[in-house]
Amino acid sequence: MAGDMLLKKPELLVPAGSLEVLKTAVVFGADAVYIGGEVFSLRAKAKNFDAEQMREGIDFAHEHGAKVYVTANVTAHNRDLEGVRKYFTELKEIKPDGLIISDPGVFDIAREVCPEIEVHISTQANNVNYGTYRFWHRLGASRVVSGRELTLAEIRELRDNIPEELEIESFVHGAMCISYSGRCLLSAYMTGRDANLGACTHPCRWKYYLMEEKRPGEYFPVVENDRGTYIFNSKDLCMIEYIPELVAAGINSFKIEGRMKPALYVAVVAGVYREAIDDYFTDPALYEQKKSYYKEAISKCSHRQFYTGFYFGRPETEGQLYDGNVYEREAVYLGIIESVDENGYCAMEQKNKFAVGEQLEILHPHATAQNVTVLDMLDEEGNHIESCPHAKQRIKVLFSKEPVPYDLLRRPE
Questions:
Q1: Which segments of 153-235 are extended strands (E)?
Q2: In terms of CB atoms within 10 Å, which end of the chain has fewer, N or C?
Q3: Global pTM?
């Protein structure tokens, strides 16, 4: 049933937890962005979007030829249903391009209240066979997000057994979850905060010891070292070196994980995947030549060690990080250029401290990072300052090379 779908360039779908990050994602190459509102989203700790921010974000994306999908993928309780109906009535007026839903009751409300908005079925719905895909398609879904437990061969089999117009969306980059299709009870059991209602505390990243039932207070390390062991802590997914295989499997949308990630992460990951996808569809040989460059470039943002998840078979011990929960980071995020005045001074809000005289990097969409020197810095009153030590400090900065709005500033580690 796949037909000529393999000839089409896949959508690059990028997360955004705030309006600033949405704009960054779009500028750095996202075809679509997925966001959460203030309710019924599985990232309750993200900044998320109120109605006005959502309107502004959708308008910005549409002006740049991109789409916006709104997540409403909680596992709803009875008490939630009337709120869902009210929320979807509001979204009907805001007009996102799609809704990402996992709960059948929520799905029914969406089809009733705003049938003109596409519905995509979240990975939380455990979508791992073509019968499930056909089921959701009959009910009116236009896209289904595959479970992360599927191999490329299984996705290819899905593609061959579902209608051509039904789209497959799959995660290609970002954090993995310890639980099947992300449906986790660990956080609720240990902290009372339900991952399926958007309040996950990520206990899979914590350090654990073994304790025997009749010996309370006696802790035994599962692995013999003085730090305990991170028995649930998985590596991060990264498929940047396997774009041809993802395309051949028939995936329509390449999804990046990370609605709680900062703008630098989103800019780097979106930019590198954008370049890799475009290179492959321009010339597969060019893509092959640049594989090591893509891997090096995408490592510039904060990440755990990379691996390929379930795509080439079930991961064993190589997919886990047993000895710690430390992110690898090769650059520090310093802020986004908001505007540039007639004298070349760049307005921005600092995200980390830097100083006059420092050598930094400007990250520009569709271009190699540029080395720049900080020549001067002004505070909000226009006074010359040597550094910006205060969190979220509003400043103007003069660089040795002039950036443009939406460029990102970072310090190599």
A1: 167-174, 210-211, 219-220
A2: C
A3: 0.84
